[in-house]
Amino acid sequence: MFNNKEPLYIQVANDIRMNIITQKWPAGFKLPTEKTLCEIYHVSRITVRRSIDELIRENLIERKKSKGAYVKTFTEPKYEFYTLVKSFNREMIEIGEKPITKVLDLDVVTADHEIANYLKIKPGEKVIRLNRLRGKKDKYFAYFETYLSYNAKLFESLINYEDSLYEKLKEHNINLVNNREIVEALLPVKSLCTLLNINKSTPILKRTRFCEDPVKDFNEYTKCYYIGTEYKYYVDFYKK
User: Fold this and answer.
1) Phi/psi at 95 (5° precision)
2) Residue 6 DSSP one-character state
3) Beta-carbon neighbour count of residue 154 at 10 Å?
4) Could you say which of 71, 96, 111 is where a domain stops?
5) Are 115 and 223 in the same domain?
6) pTM score, two decimals?
7) How many structural domains compose the chain?
8) Number of continuous H segments (helices) and E segments (strands) in the chain
9) Domain that holds residue 29
10) DSSP letter assigned to residue 201
């Protein structure tokens, strides 16, 4: 589960944060005790405490005296805003560019712990994996690694398909909502340098996207990597 690139407490905090973002641990949820978290992650109590402290600083968790740690409950604002799930193709068209896509891999795989957590299924269940290069005109500047809830008919329809994924989902009456994203800046690993034909000092914008269709019980988890000098991230807000 852990790698050697980041401190353990950061990796534990990342996993707990994902549980909160995906609402596996909803607002008001009481976190497992420090002892239980030590057993889950196979780390020391000091590591667990540093992880919790990190999430408290991010305003995601709060400690209640003599009661433990809880996922923080936020007061609902007077007006609620939302964003629409916007496809890469639509983003490019809106800025006057012609989108291009190259499918690198389309397969049915079994979900590991991480993927199962994000798609709200059990580890070992089948999922669709779709890896693509995205770009405009004749230049690819983004790499998308997507995991989807398994649907046999959807998988068959994606073979040799290189247009908008969201348009294809709509053909199967799958409409994704409740979009959540994590945006971060980082430097590319060697494999990403090869895929995007860049060097290791090129800035990368990473978007981690979580979407779902609650009616169809269908989920999407996508990691998007953009060359930082080739892409601008923007959000449109709509008031209900």
Assistant:
1) -105, 15
2) S
3) 18
4) 71
5) yes
6) 0.67
7) 2
8) 8, 10
9) 8-71
10) T
